[in-house]
Amino acid sequence: MDKNAIKTAAEILRDSGHIAVLTGAGISAESGVPTFRGEHGLWKQFRAEELATPEAFARDPKLVWEWYDWRRGIIAKVEPSRGHWTLAKWEEIFPEFTLITQNVDGLHAKAGSKNILELHGNIWKVRCTKEEAVTENYAVPLNEIPPACPVCGAMLRPHVVWFGESLDADLLGRAFGLSASCDVMLVIGTSAFVQPAASLPLRAAENGAKIIEINPAPTPLTSYADISLLGKAGEVLPAIDGLLQKE
Ligand code: APR
Predict the structure, then answer these.
(1) Per-residue confidence (pLDDT) for residue 39, from 0 to 100
(2) Architecture of 3-32+81-120+167-246 per CATH?
(3) pLDDT attached to residue 93
(4) Residue of 102, 160, 230 with the most ligand 1 atoms within 8 Å of its CB, for mutation
(5) Can you tell me which atom of ligand 1 is nearest the CA of 81?
(6) For helices 82-93 and 233-245, angle between their N-to-C axes, nearest 10 degrees
């Protein structure tokens, strides 16, 4: 790990007034949750268009729910990573600190983060396909597949954003608002491919924010980053935190 880059990152964070963070699956990798595009990623084992699209759900809701039930079973057994814990701690010590995540695993909240925008939804929430009501459901395994709405009996769907679906307009508006107002955006554990999330750091950079990327591998964002820390979130974030403690 580049100690000078870590030191510079700590100095930038220390001097910032408003920090925004964008996370992706990589911050949960060290918890044991599979990423999507890495060598053992979910999209290497499964075909996204057969599991994570409205068409797939309409065609075979049982198959789609079996896949989500399997993912929920994995996530239920894991703990937040050192990266999640560090971000939760920073929310308490920095004056303005907002977390935007693409992850649906709920591990940021499990680590204690409160100020979270879950752009792609949450795997622990279900939505009635008839009434659109969203409720929490932590059953592992699910009591029935596909699960039925306890109110109206219609089929429930995962409250997550599938390919081809639009994100919640209010959440997205708030996320772009944060990109326009933050001094620093930390971009952690995302391959920076999937839109519109991947545009958030570019918008922040256009507005003069410093971009700090944390990822073991370069991404399409790396050339736009002021600092690219090539390492694991669970190692880099605690290293920065260690320097911040040496005020
Ligand atoms: N620490 C930090 N980053 C890591 C780590 C780690 N320990 N391990 C892997 N990474 C990085 C990988 O190098 C990769 O760039 O995390 C990134 C994971 O990329 P993806 O699997 O593409 O996940 P993500 O960017 O979150 O995908 C975005 O795509 O499939 C959709 O909706 C899904 O939210 C997801 C979106």
Answers:
(1) 87
(2) 3-Layer(aba) Sandwich (3.40)
(3) 95
(4) 102
(5) 7
(6) 30
Ligand 1 atom at minimal distance to the Cα of residue 190: 25
Mean pLDDT by groups of 10 residues along the chain of 247 residues: 94 96 98 94 93 97 98 98 98 96 98 98 98 97 97 97 98 98 98 97 98 98 98 98 89
Q: What residue ranges line ligand 1, CB within 6 angstroms? A: 24-27, 29-30, 35-38, 41, 102, 120, 189-191, 194, 214-217, 219, 232-234
Architecture in CATH for domain 39-77+127-160? 2-Layer Sandwich (3.30)
Q: Name the token pair of 28.
A: 């949960």
Question: For residue 150, how far is its CA from the centre of ligand 1 (angstroms)?
Answer: 34
Q: Which residue has the tokens 């939760």?
A: 88
* Structure token digits, residue 148: 């039925």
- Indicate which residues carry an active-site annotation: 120
